């Protein structure tokens, strides 16, 4: 039997090995939001590399000051309780060096502070982002199942309580004590970040970082939405805004599940990407609207000449879907909510899944209750993915069923890329590689 001294020496040797395999710098690169609000921009700055378990200190404030501006799915505890009571301490954490981070529209809303949630600054967070893929460079002393050199991903939810009914049921994405990455904890716009080992996603071999990063949010979110929808193989599912980073993952997953995905979006780049990723049809809503028949989703349409005698979008969707209408509509572009019901057409038992979140005070969806009754219409919401959804999505990618959807750029294009995303000009995803200038 090993003596206590021998055991301690072995542990020290292991810990030293963990620390010395990687040269961990004192500072790292980060995309930092400046001037949070409508005039925000992102600057690449040098920031301190965190130590696992060392969280920002927050000035005490009444819990009521952090209450949501209106009803929202999650409750928000005070930062003191969130970071010093409910979260694991350093021995249970990983330090991850990210290679890549995807840019998500949720990041834009956090930086704009236009959602009905507290601001990033109320949590002393300056880096958004929640689609990180990288490598573990330091492991807390109590962590099991992880080692230095393992590949790891960081998701929209940084941690959950694991001690409530929702967590026990595998629905931890609705945990009231969930900590949101990039809002309540430092996000993946920062190259080195800490992550609780218990809620970090392992990335399998065969899935590169440019694929894995966006899976953390966009693919896992769409996997959860498709599962929640209860749509079946051979059924038509429409993705308004499906040429963007979230919707295009839904297209790939729906195809892999045997469904028949249809994309509504605009522009040749999104058309090309959608069809390459498995969409059966692409309906350009800008062309329809320019005929004066469809009040579409974009506030800044591109001048694309419409074909003559083009039917409106809902009529076109009905034609594609065997003259009846879609079995399901999964809305990732919130501007499309007002038209979503029309895409169901005459289909009985259709479902609309709300994924894209509008700015606060926007009301986008409504209908005569008799329409719900006579058509057995279901409207539901779905909020990001769980650990299980992320693992399932990574497995689809490992099998080659989720392909790379991104353009990879370096740090020097961080601000340009964020503003391009804000304007809705990005087909698929932009991924920032921290090792590229």
CATH superfamily of the largest domain: Medium-chain alcohol dehydrogenases, catalytic domain
Tell me which CATH architecture of the largest domain applies here: Alpha-Beta Complex
The largest β sheet comes out as: 7 strands, mixed
Helix % is 25-40%
CATH class label of the largest domain: Alpha Beta
- What is the 3D form? globular
CATH domain topology of the largest domain: Quinone Oxidoreductase, Chain A, domain 1
Mean pLDDT reading: 85
Number of domains: 2
Strand fraction band?
A: 15-25%
The total of beta strands comes to: 17
Q: Which structural category do the helix and sheet elements fall into?
A: alpha/beta
Q: What would you report as the Rg, rounded to the nearest angstrom? A: 22 Å
